[in-house]
Amino acid sequence: MNIVQILLIIILTIGYYLFFQYENKKIRVRLFLLMAYGTILIFIISPESADKVAHMLHVTSGIDMVIYLSIAGVWLLAVMNFVHNKHLERAVTKMVRKNALDILCYKLRQMDKIDDFK
Questions:
Q1: Are residues 39 and 31 in contact, defined by beta-carbon separation less than 8 angstroms?
Q2: Which of 43, 47, 54, 86 has its CA 20 to 30 A from that of 67?
Q3: Which helix (H) or strand (E) holds 63?
C-alpha cells in the first residue's frame, strides 16, 4: 500500500465520520453511504478490482469508471440539494405569510376593525 492510498483512506474515513457526526439521516441513506464507502475503500486498496468492474461494465479502465461515477454522484447531489432548497423555500414562504396575516389581524383587533370569531 502506498502513501496515496493511505492518505485517501484517512480522508475518506474522516469525511465519513464527520458526515455521521453532524447529520441525522434516515437508515436508507446511511446504508447507501456505508456501501459507497466500502466500495471506494476496496477500489483504493485494490485498484485492480476497479479495472475488473470497469471491464464488466464495458468501460476502458477503472479510473474512467470512477470519474464517470463521480460526475453522476455530483450531479445527483446537486439535484437533491436543489429539491431540498425548494422545500425549504416553500416552508419559509408559508411561515412568513402566516406571520404577516397574524400581525395584520392583531393590528386590526387593536383598532376594533374586526371581532374575534369564537
A1: no
A2: 86
A3: helix 62-110
